[in-house]
Amino acid sequence: MNLNEKLVSRKSGPAQTARMVETIIGCKWSLTVYYLLENKVNRPGEMVKSVEGLTTKVLNQCLKRNIEFGILKKISYPEIPPRVEYEVTDFGQKFMRILADLQSLQLEIDN
Q1: In the beta sheet, which residues pair with residue 10?
Q2: pTM, full prediction
Q3: DSSP of 71-98
Q4: 36, 77, 81, 94: least surrounded by Cβ within 10 Å?
């Protein structure tokens, strides 16, 4: 390697994209949440009841990260008691298609 060549640091390149993928894939519940949303389970209480081992605290952290990345959006209804639902954004739909493609690739590798 030429001394004038610069090494690519972990923070260079598509840093935001890499952080998003690492965070989402690193969260073992994100894929489960996507599955629930695809099956019209979009309220936090329903999600917790639907998945063994999923707690409200962990779900809220997962949902918050997905909202920060623009994958999910939170819809709050001005009702008493308050009602909150989550849905996948247009960007989230694209992201989920990429995940599905990765799953298909893994199936090809396994066969």
Answers
A1: none
A2: 0.77
A3: SEEEEEE--SS-EEEEEE-HHHHHHHHH
A4: 81
